[in-house]
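step: validate -> pass
step: tokenize input -> pass
step: predict -> running
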Amino acid sequence: MNRNTLKKDIDSRIFDTVNVTLLLIFSIIIIVPLWNVIISSFSSGKSLAEGGFIFWPKEFSLENYEAVFRDSSIWQSFFISVAKTVIGVITHVFFCAMIGYGLSKQKVRGRKLYVTMGVITMFFSGGMIPTYLLIKSLGLLNSFWVYIIPALFSYYDVIILMNFFRNVPDSLEESAKIDGAGDWRVFLKIFIPLSMPAIATIALFNGVGQWNDFMTTKLYVTDKTLYPLQMKLYEIIVQSQTQSMQNIGGSAVIETTTKGVQLATIVITTLPIVVMYPILQKYFISGMMLGAVKE
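step: predict -> pass
step: emit ->
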């Protein structure tokens, strides 16, 4: 083995060691706080009152989860979160895919104008007050559809799908049209199945956004029967902070009980996303690699 080969081998080992070390540190930074939240949610109020980092519950208890599920509004909020996430993802992906399919065709009249208008929406918005007035004029205040209709369009997702559709061979579309297929059939039977990596990636990002969103509720919804799970979590956090301020110098029972319920709610709201990610992981990785390699 000559000197250059030995040097390259040593450099490669050092590089691999540094990468593994950084990955390990990064994993610990993520896993340790997450583990603390999960374990603390299974701890009794007395253990939480002692404070400090909890690596393993001193007194295992399900009282926090019992308190969460005793509240009937939690189930209603969970249903709203699931419904708005599922419907929102399906409608968002389908709407963006339709627009991306149309804009991927060079023959579309006014295509450059539409593309320019879409790019402008990526940099400018109407602002909070004009958006609120628009939502109000459309009659979407205190409506379930306020979660769906304003979230239908994202030009960033349109660009991803548009570029993906351009890579589909024209011969597939031409052969389908020779057999009598129309644009809708070509779109649904050819382009949608071939673009599943991109669609799954967009669905994952949009689904996480829909599931975690509580700002839409805070701005446009006052009917508590339409509160999603994240808004319920927000209320619990605000309630715990208020009770902590009122409980200064007094008993710690209220604070620790509320804190335990808060931690249990965090675990419950995070669990569905953690479960869904491994299912979509293979599509997610393929979608992230789209456009990474150019011919």
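step: describe -> The two ends are 36 Å apart (CA to CA).
step: cleanup -> pass
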